[in-house]
């Protein structure tokens, strides 16, 4: 059945808008401070940016950098590119398109981006 106004039903979810990451203007790239390897640069599209939560899309060019998730949990979905997260505990997670991943509060480690990564994300702060 095709979606039409007549067939639409109310839900508890409010859809604020539909975004194609290919069609929106991304902000200028920002160099990652103190990279471990290479010259990675990031861009962030924030859909929500509040004291206790943030959601949006993020992209990063190849390189390596440290990450410290003290005080927040992050849920992400990789929509393009490839990377590895190497935890300080030695655990390695491979990220590729389709990967959904939760980084717990307190996680520390290194991002190794091998192919420009794009992800959607939601952050919940303590």
Measured between the Cα atoms of the first and last residue, the distance is: 43 Å
CATH C-level class is Mainly Beta
Label the overall shape: globular
Give the count of helical stretches.
0
Total strand segments:
8
Which stretches of 5+ consecutive residues score pLDDT under 50?
1-15
CATH architecture classification name:
Sandwich
Q: Provide the domain count.
A: 1
Main sheet specs: 8 strands, antiparallel
**CATH homologous superfamily - what is it?**
Jelly Rolls
Structure description:
This protein is an all-beta fold and 126 residues long. It has a single domain, classed as Jelly Rolls, CATH 2.60.120. The chain is 0% helix and 54% strand. It contains no helices and 8 strands. Strands 1, 2, 3, 4, 5, 6, 7 and 8 form an 8-stranded antiparallel beta sheet that branches. β2 and β3 form a beta hairpin. It starts with 29 loop residues before the first strand and ends with a strand. The N terminus is likely disordered. Pfam families: Cupin_3 (PF05899).
């Amino acid at each position: 059945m095709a979606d039409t106004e007549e067939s639409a039903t109310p839900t508890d979810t409010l859809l604020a808008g539909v975004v194609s990451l290919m069609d929106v203007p991304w902000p200028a790239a920002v160099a990652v401070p103190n990279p471990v390897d290479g010259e990675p640069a990031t861009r962030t599209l924030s859909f929500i940016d509040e004291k206790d939560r943030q959601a949006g899309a993020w992209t990063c060019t190849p390189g390596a950098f440290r990450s410290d998730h003290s005080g927040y949990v992050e849920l992400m979905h990789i929509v393009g590119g490839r990377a590895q997260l190497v935890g300080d505990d030695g655990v390695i997670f491979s990220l590729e398109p389709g990967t959904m991943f939760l980084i717990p509060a307190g996680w520390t480690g290194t991002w190794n981006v091998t192919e420009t990564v794009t992800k959607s994300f939601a952050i919940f702060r303590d």
